[in-house]
Amino acid sequence: MTEQQTESGIVLPSYTRENAEIDPPLDFAGYRSTEFRHPKNPLVLMPQMLTEVTGPVLGESRLGPLDYDLTRQHEEMPLGQRIEVSGRVLDSDGRPVPNTLVECWQANASGRYRHEVDDWPAPLDPNFTGVGRCFTDSDGNYRFVTIKPGAYPWKNHHNAWRPAHIHFSLFGRAFTQRLVTQMYFPDDPLFSEDPIFNSPRDPKVRERMISRHDWGTTEDHWQLGYKWDIVLRGPDAVAFEEPHA
Amino acid sequence: MSKLGVTPSQTVGPYFAIGLTWDDGPDVVPQGTDGAFWIRGRVIDGNGDPVPDAVVETWQADSGGRFAHPDDPRGAVDRGDFRGLGRCGTDKEGRFGIHTVKPGRVPGQNGTLQAPHIDVTVMARGMLARLVTRIYFPEEEAANAEDPVLSSLPATAASETLMAVKSDDGYSFDIHLQGENETVFFSI
Q: Is A226 a catalytic residue?
């Protein structure tokens, strides 16, 4: 990690700062619920100090042996297309982020979440909870086995449908790297009308959320494979160019 | 060096509670820890209504001002049951609670010493990215006065929104996403 040295002799890593070219705006007219849930005052720029460049180191004792496999958490297999979703967690310099907790949650094959607020007329599946957890290995690899989630309607506008997606939550190595995002599937016809998918300004940035089909993890008569790498904020390039005496 | 494009944030949506809430989520320190207290608050929107689908996460040093983390240049200190992370979804009234101890002082930049503080992440349906704020402690008047973050806030920033308020079992700390009492949020 890029390091910065303070006068007190403390050497700290430094991460690229939040960037409006990457993250979506908090005030986004297309997503109605943002209206009363975004601050009107500008964010105050804060230097990254010790609390910001450290973060929780969570032990694997938090995991059950089948937490990575959402198809084996009940008596029977869930309904739906079995898929494996795997990839690497990297920083923006391409370095793996090892031993970090990756959490995911999703709707079932019908597009319904096992949550009391979700009551649209699609069936729940008694064999599917829709929650997964794993730690990346020493090379940043993660892997989930699940079923492909269905699309589902929401009330943002008339005939609003969310493209199929899996929610991902990552802690990375530092508070600064905390990320919650969504993984989408290739060629979804619902992309064009979905304000959440389209909230990052740059279409090229949106594509970073789309997984790709992968023959290497597709298994004959068993599962389809999807690959998706997740990139967290990495060393600050500006600080990198400065000599740190 | 070729840079990889950073993955953008998306909202946690309305259903995160199935995945992001843990039974022991609020416990930065285990129940029964000496000197532990609760920080309780509400997440409020710009209409003054509670936000019932937010998740509040906290990150802090231990009572000695140390982090159990390899990037703490003073050396990682593992204090056993101290997790440092707190996590709590809001209830129907927008309430959350974090069970913790007061962090010690942590060095800042240029030889400064920060006042005891807790970093806070807020995420919710209707928020496309997280918000970051800090909790400070009202009785730490001398430390707060020399804290590099508090002392460099813009004159227009409502610094009192960063200050917890003493309560029966610890402190209260409300988070106003918008409106007259809008909390000061940081870009890191």
A: no
